[in-house]
Amino acid sequence: MNIHEYQGKEILSSFGVRVQRGIVAQDAKEAVDAAKKLTEQTGTGWHVIKAQVHAGGRGKGGGVKLAKNLQEVEEIAGQIIGMNLVTPQTSAEGKKVHQVLVAEDVYYPGDSEPEEYYMSVLLNRATGKNMIMYSTEGGMDIETVAEQTPHLIFNEEIDPAVGLMPFQARRIAFNLGLSGAAFKEMTKFVMALYEAYTKSDSSLFEINPVLKTSDDKIMAVDAKVTLDDNALFRHKDYAEMRDTREENPVEVEAKAVGLNYVDLDGNVGCMVNGAGLAMATMDLIKQAGGEPANFLDVGGTADAKRVEEAFRLILKDEKVKAILINIFGGIVRCDRVAQGIVDAYKNMGDAIKVPIIVRLQGTNADIAKELIDNSGLDVHSAVEFQEAADKVHEVLA
């Protein structure tokens, strides 16, 4: 589950990680009030206005701007809130901005120049260990750094038996070229950051940039946090941070009715029971010359109501030219699934205007095929994978 920057900073701060302070605002007036409050708390005269959307690269799209007075705070907040922000990580349509974070200016003058670093905590799937990835090249896309200057990216792997050790935090600070007070600050920052990552059950913490201020403080200026959905039962307060406005509305609807659905860009809708079979079905569609329009796992209870809900979700995508239903009857009997398909089809009337290919294999598959073939509906039945692929190719031709 992705969360907003301000929410990520709340989690970081709760574990003792120093963050750039800010207040979220829903409109321009709230932004001005937030700026006044921040000035009282921090003494800052300038403020950074940041669009709160689930996408990186906000600055490139005009979603992060500096305001030097309250009038500029109101003007910039008014411009950003309500805009469709297009970044390298959004679609061409962009994402609508519903709120902004009014943050303190932390690039103040002092004894030394501020410096920016990159730091993330994530699982290294190749080794099965958590790792801290970091670089002196903060504020840039890490992909660009990896491509152009890979020697400036460092990795610190953590032994799960003992966790992050203090000497590893010191090594990170050393590799970043820090010394004195900034060195000590960075070691504390890294230890607190890793504790926040593990205890919040996150799958990603990305801080870009981590800032060394002109007076040698280390803080998170940004925070991209992804929480593990499977662990949210342990964090009821984190679960409440979900912003469904930032998610695909069809995926949100599917989740509400208990279906596992992921929207894709293809032209053949999938309705499958089981994630593994769903992946194989998408390969089947590609083999037949089509492109999968979605991943949809109906689970083990493919009755008429569930199938009808699945149909409605798939048909919300106007690009869908055909639907492939691929069910293995292990826990659920194929004849019951077939009857569910027939009932759902009849219930939906003229709403289904694309051809449907049904492959049912397993318990009572022969009875299921007979039910489909004798239904009188525009449904093509198949038994073997290749047969289903041929029918998909046929209806798309």
TrEMBL record:
Family label? Belongs to the succinate/malate CoA ligase beta subunit family.
So which cofactors does this thing need?
Mg(2+)
Q: How does it assemble?
A: Heterotetramer of two alpha and two beta subunits.
The record lists substrate as bound by 273, 330-332
* Molecular function in Gene Ontology: ATP binding; magnesium ion binding; succinate-CoA ligase (ADP-forming) activity; succinate-CoA ligase (GDP-forming) activity
- Residues noted as binding Mg(2+) in the record, renumbered to the chain: 208, 222
**Reactions accelerated catalytically:** succinate + ATP + CoA = succinyl-CoA + ADP + phosphate; GTP + succinate + CoA = succinyl-CoA + GDP + phosphate
Q: What is this protein called?
A: Succinate--CoA ligase [ADP-forming] subunit beta
Give the UniProt keywords, A-Z: ATP-binding, Ligase, Magnesium, Metal-binding, Nucleotide-binding, Tricarboxylic acid cycle
Q: Name one GO biological process term.
A: succinyl-CoA metabolic process
Protein's UniProt keywords contain Nucleotide-binding: yes
Q: How is the cofactor bound?
A: Binds 1 Mg(2+) ion per subunit.
- Name all ATP-grasp fold succinyl-CoA synthetase-type domain ranges: 2-210
